[in-house]
Each structure stands twice: as C-alpha cells, then as structure tokens.
Structure prediction request, 315 residues.
Amino acid sequence: MNQICSLFNIKYPIIQAGMVWCSGWKLASAVSNAGGLGIIGVGSMHPEVLKEHIQKCKLATQKPFGVNIPLLYPNIEEIINIVIAENVGIVFTSAGNPSIYTNLLKSKGITVVHVIANSKFAIKAQEAGVDAIVAEGFEAGGHNGREETTTMCLIPLIKEVVSIPIIAAGGIASGKSMLAAFALGADAVQVGSAFAVAAESSAHLDFKNRIILSAEGDTKLAMKKLVPVRLLKNEFADSVTQAEAEGADRTTLMQLLGKARAKLGMFEGDMINGELEIGQVAAMLKEIKPAAKILEEIWLEFLEAKNRLSKLDFN
Prediction:
C-alpha cells in the first residue's frame, strides 16, 4: 500500500493544501469525503474560529482530516492546545522550527508532517521526528522558499537525504504532474491552487474568477526580505515590485503590506489592493468545480498517464 495512504488512512495519495482564506471546514471535509486528505488552514483563523471549523468538519465527514499550523502564529500555544483538545489526528506544521512541538503532538497520538523548501530543513524535520514532509517547490502559491528551487529539482534532492515519506507540492494540479512527482520520488502530492478555486473553497468568487482568467507570467515571487510569497499581479503586487526595485528594507515592506492584506484580496474580493496568493499553475485552471470532481479528475488522469507510459516501447 502507498505509504502516505497508510499513514493517513486515506484512499488516494492526494493532499489538499492548508491555504489562508481558502481552506475552511467545507473544503477540507469535501476533499476528505472524496478520498483525499482535507486540511483546514489555520493561518487565517483566530483560535475560537479554528475550534468552530474543526467541530464543523467533524460533523461533515467521518474520514480523516488535518490542520495546517504556521509555527510563527502569534497564538501558537493556544492553537496547539485546541488541536489536542479537539482530538485532531493529523497536523501539518510550516513556517518555523518543527522540533518545538513535534514531540508534544506525537505524544498525543497525532501524526505530524512538516513543510520544507530545501534539503537542510528536510533533514532537520526528519531529525525532529516528523512522520512525513511536504517538499514545496518554487512554483507553489502563498509562502515559498527563498532558494527558488523548482519542484522538479527539489523532490530528487530531498529523496537523497531523508528516509521518511515525501509529499510533493508546487505546480501540481493534474494527474500528469502528479505522475511526474511520483517518478521523481514522491509518495503523494499536495494540491493547493486547484482546490483554491473549488466550489467549496472559502475564497471570494472574484478571486476565483481572477485565477481562472490568469495566464502564464501572471504570478511573481515577492517580498523575499520578509517571507517570500507568490502573488498574482495587481496594483498591490506592482507597488511591492517597485518598492523592492528601489531597495526597500523589511520595515518599509511591512508597512506596505500592512495588516489583513491577504484577507482583503482573497476573502473580501478586492482585486486591486488585496494580496492575491496563488501558484504558477493558476494559468492552467479554467473552471470552478466541486472539490470531489477536481480530485477525481487528477486521479483518473494519473492512472491514464501511468498506463500510457507503461506501454511505451523504446526497443
């Protein structure tokens, strides 16, 4: 059996990314009910909101689901305590040191996965005792690695240095890209952007439509002096690009970013002044569909591509 399917007790090795302002209980439960692993994105939630989403997700699905916790979250201890108290079985951690909470979470019977973007932190995550890692390439939406290593390069690099299961992320929205990730050594894939435009995604409809209308080159990695993030181009993104070209320091960029900029764009639908986080694969997304349909299409294309390759004759 596939290692990730066995680890999470799921049918398909397809993980929905925990995305700010996109992945609440409706999306997570829909993905889990379809046989993948749904993830509630904690990054945009106050503690009491997270508790509500976990409880609603439990009512909406009997299947496993998880939460993604950015470890730089200001209320991190309260978040950890809620996850433990609510008996969440799977936790994905990101944006911080996995050694701080991994042992505590695992002592409570929780499966722990950490998100990394380079070999150095893959090794540190394995040493911290996590059960698996998400290796996220440069193509990914949202927060990203400073090294700008693409998924095609990152997965085999990570495969060389860790023995735990690897979940490939970044630029994956189809069965063909999923098969490519498996060929490189991945045990599963994490899909973000494709689920961001799902019918059950909590993203604003204007944001979903902006993604669907996007083309090649419409996203760019920005704010490397803070936390690198891939953005759809708009007036806000242009202002960031201009500031960076003029040598803006961290303080200036933080003032430009302000507060709740991602909420303004992704959740409230301000396509001019909002921060619009999405992956390069946005250019391939052309329709709003139910999450179950998205997962089914990825899986069936994966099987078709796998079957086609098995029949190639190079003699």
Summary: Residues 291-310 form the longest helix (20 residues).
